[in-house]
Amino acid sequence: MDPLAPENKVTLHIKNMVCPRCIRIIREQFALLGIPVLDVQLGLVELARPLEATEKEKILLVLEDYGFELLVDKKLKLVEQIKTCIIDLIHHKNEKINTTYSTYLSQAIGKDYSTLSHVFSSVEKFTIERFIILQKIEFIKAQLDYEELSLGEVASRLHYSSLSHLSKQFKTITGYTPSEYKKQAIRDRLPLDRLKKADN
């Protein structure tokens, strides 16, 4: 039996992978452990073969050292998949999607949105919509800090109906208008995977 045959492939679901740097760290650490990796994406690692018990122990330690976590519960895996899709879409894809967030998530994950919404809310105790809003706010903060896009461009990319809608939601969440935030150089950006329902 070929240990590297397709039927022996294993997918690991890893929590807190939120950026390209996370992917690089995972690749490097698995290579150092001598574990063959076929692919690494945000939240997912595809291995060429099942892990041995000693390898799994080593991986758990490495992941913990870097703030990651191996997920085994099906609901937790799905919630992390939802979060990863949203973070990747809002922060890392450089184009505006031509559909709704609910349709995008449903198509990307392969489950109807009502299922995704129910599981997410049952685990996180707040809605997918709330998580999307908080991610948008963090993206806006980044653009105010680095001035890569104008607020008009940001509003269009993030599906705001208008610049005033963006500004109003920003103030509701942060307590500042975008111009106040920029003027005061507040710099209170939050870790993308740690955003919760409470206004920050």
TrEMBL record:
Keyword Iron among record annotations: no
InterPro entries documented for this protein: Homeodomain-like_sf, HTH_AraC
Entry keyword set: DNA-binding, Plasmid, Transcription, Transcription regulation
Domain of life: Bacteria
Start and end residues of each HTH araC/xylS-type domain: 105-184
A single GO molecular function term of this UniProt record: sequence-specific DNA binding
PANTHER family: ARAC-FAMILY TRANSCRIPTIONAL REGULATOR (PTHR43280), HTH-TYPE TRANSCRIPTIONAL REGULATOR EXSA (PTHR43280:SF2)
Identification of the protein by name: AraC family transcriptional regulator
Organism: Adhaeribacter radiodurans
